[in-house]
């Protein structure tokens, strides 16, 4: 076993923050090596300790599919990928039906996800209707395009607990979103009192340890509610076909490394798509999916798992599923 890796792991387990070079060292280990498995085991132990041995099931409802002008090349909605030719919207009645089913199944947080075409005002109306229909105080989360602080305060006003918003790998190069704009949105969300959900994504085999480490440090600087590692699921026909996907085995090492690198103040460790290997390596937030998905080529996702299927992954990896509202977002409280 590489003694430098042992030193870095122990430093993290002792509650100390790793520097960039140490994070890069963890991310650089050879796949299937003793060092890789040591990082995975340490990530599991660290996250389990921080979260009392509990994992969570978060759930995504995609509200629309469209040829999106933000043109994120890794996304099936990108206009240039020509997968979705028209704007297709999931009817509100269907969204509420899915939300109630997800809530009843025991999800700990519910995310509403849109493209640019959905529109800010329409999202507020939909989110209010969903919030009013829900029967528990499960937190409602927005995964929407960039916004300013005034809109962030509107999200808070209607009962949104947090937002999932990140600077993606290749931002501004393979997307038409500016890094500066993404950062301003994240700052606006924090200023308005929204919890920031985060993940290092979408990771492909071409991404370097330094690129990944930079985004881990950004998550740490923003004091996000949780972070983690998400692989790119390469959409057929896109420019990333030449690279393909990383394996879930490799992603598990990144999941363990991210848990250690984000430190003791960022307790949650997410991954997507759900994977037993990542669960073993410390990922304790995984998503069920309904509606549209940026990783799918059908309006109604065929890739997404149900709440019960995610629960089964946790059972198989010896996680206890948290009951009730998420630990990582505030529970809803009527004003």
UniProtKB/TrEMBL annotation:
Coiled coil feature spans: none
PROSITE patterns per record: RADICAL_SAM (PS51918)
PANTHER family, sorted: 3-METHYLORNITHINE SYNTHASE (PTHR43726), BIOTIN SYNTHASE (PTHR43726:SF1)
Natural source organism: Gordonibacter faecis
Ranges of residues in domain Radical SAM core: 53-281
Pfam families: Radical_SAM (PF04055)
Keyword field contains Iron: yes
Protein's recorded name: Radical SAM protein
Entry keyword set: Iron, Iron-sulfur, Metal-binding, S-adenosyl-L-methionine
């Amino acid at each position: 076993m590489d003694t430098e890796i042992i030193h870095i792991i122990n430093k993290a387990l002792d509650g100390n923050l790793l520097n960039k070079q140490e994070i890069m060292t963890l991310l650089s280990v050879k796949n299937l090596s003793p060092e890789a498995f040591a990082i995975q085991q340490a990530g599991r132990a660290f996250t389990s300790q921080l979260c009392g041995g509990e994992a969570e099931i978060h759930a995504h409802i995609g509200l629309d599919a469209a040829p999106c002008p933000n043109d994120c090349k890794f996304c099936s909605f990108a206009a240039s990928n020509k997968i979705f030719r028209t704007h297709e919207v999931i009817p509100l009645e269907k969204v509420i039906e899915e939300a109630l089913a997800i809530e009843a199944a025991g999800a700990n947080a519910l995310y509403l996800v849109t493209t640019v075409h959905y529109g800010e005002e329409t999202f507020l109306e939909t989110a209010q209707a969903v919030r009013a229909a829900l029967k528990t105080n499960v937190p409602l989360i927005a995964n929407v395009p960039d916004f300013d602080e005034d809109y962030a305060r509107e999200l808070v006003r209607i009962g949104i607990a947090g937002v999932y918003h990140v600077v993606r790998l290749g931002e501004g190069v393979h997307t038409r979103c500016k890094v500066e704009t993404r950062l301003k949105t994240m700052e606006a969300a924090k200023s308005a009192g929204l919890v920031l959900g985060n993940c290092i994504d979408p990771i492909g085999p071409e991404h370097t340890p330094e690129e990944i480490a930079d985004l881990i440090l950004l998550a740490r600087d923003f004091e996000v509610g949780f972070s983690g590692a998400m692989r790119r699921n390469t959409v057929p026909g896109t420019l990333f076909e030449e690279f393909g996907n990383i394996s879930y085995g490799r992603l598990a090492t990144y999941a363990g490394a991210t848990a250690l690198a984000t430190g003791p103040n960022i307790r949650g460790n997410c991954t997507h798509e759900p994977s037993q290997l990542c669960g073993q390596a410390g990922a304790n937030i995984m998503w069920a999916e309904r509606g549209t998905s940026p990783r799918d080529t059908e309006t109604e996702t065929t890739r997404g798992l149900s709440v019960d299927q995610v629960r089964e992954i946790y059972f198989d990896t010896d996680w206890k599923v948290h009951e009730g509202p998420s630990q990582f977002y505030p529970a809803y409280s009527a004003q």
